């Protein structure tokens, strides 16, 4: 049972790592600030939640579990708030959304 | 299992360097802020990985504190970018 949980935890960590890599590639490749915000949300919400939940399953039950769940819940609420504030500031400063055929920023 | 953690940590550092490209190049302050926010999140996960590799639970407390500091810093910078002052 413990071994099964550990294997599941490592699988979740690798899945979260895939989302981290995908969000970094999106941050480089996508054309403007709004689509890049979409890519960064993949890392902020999904990538860290999957990786840290993998560590929750990997570790034995104890104080570490509580701290990891606290980190997951805090990041899940806080980082999309920060992303929203950044994108709102960019919108107020008059950034236009990218349309097909235009040049990339 | 420590080898898998080590490899995932190295891959995470590599993706952090990919984000650093956007910080250096990216046009305007908003792209740079977005990339800095992502780098902060990856740093938190990296701290947890380091704590599990060396089996020191203290790193989880550091990660918890760093999450709060990262949020406050990003929010303050976004507000400064939006309004021109922190008020």
Describe the structure.
The complex is a heterodimer of chains A (105) and B (87). Chain A has one domain. Chain A has three helices and no strands. With 87 residues, chain B is mainly alpha-helical. In chain B, helix 2 runs antiparallel to helix 3. The termini of chain B are far apart. The chains are: A mainly alpha (105), B mainly alpha (87). Chains A and B meet through helix 1, helix 2 and helix 3 of A and helix 1, helix 2 and helix 3 of B.
Biggest interface found? A-B, 49 and 41 residues
Query: How many alpha or pi helices of chain B?
Result: 3
Specify the overall morphology of chain B.
flat
What is the domain tally of chain A? 1
Membrane topology (chain B): Multi-pass membrane protein
Main location (chain B): membrane
GO molecular function (chain B): sodium:proton antiporter activity
Organism (chain B): Methanoculleus formosensis
How are the secondary structure elements laid out?
The complex is a heterodimer of chains A (105) and B (87).
Chain A: H1 2-29, H2 33-58, H3 63-92
Chain B: H1 2-25, H2 28-53, H3 58-83
Helix pairs in contact in B: 1-2, 2-3
Membrane topology (chain B): Multi-pass membrane protein
GO molecular function (chain B): sodium:proton antiporter activity
Pfam families (chain B): MrpF_PhaF
């Amino acid at each position: 049972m413990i071994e099964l949980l550990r294997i599941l935890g490592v699988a979740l960590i690798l899945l979260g790592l895939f989302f981290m890599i995908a969000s970094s590639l999106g941050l480089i490749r996508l054309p403007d600030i709004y689509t890049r915000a979409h890519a960064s949300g993949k890392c902020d919400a999904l990538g860290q939640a999957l990786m840290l939940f993998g560590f929750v399953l990997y570790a034995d039950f104890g104080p570490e579990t509580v701290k990891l769940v606290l980190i997951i819940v805090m990041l899940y609420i806080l980082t999309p708030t920060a992303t929203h504030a950044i994108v709102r500031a960019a919108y107020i400063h008059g950034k236009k959304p990218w349309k097909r055929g235009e040049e990339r920023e | 299992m420590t080898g898998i953690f080590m490899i995932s940590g190295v891959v995470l550092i590599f993706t952090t360097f990919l984000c650093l490209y956007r910080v250096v190049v990216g046009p305007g302050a908003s792209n740079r802020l977005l990339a800095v926010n992502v780098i902060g999140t990856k740093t938190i996960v990296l701290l947890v990985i380091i704590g599990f590799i060396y089996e020191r639970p203290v790193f989880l407390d550091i990660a918890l504190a760093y999450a709060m500091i990262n949020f406050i810093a990003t929010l303050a910078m976004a507000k400064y970018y939006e309004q021109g002052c922190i008020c």
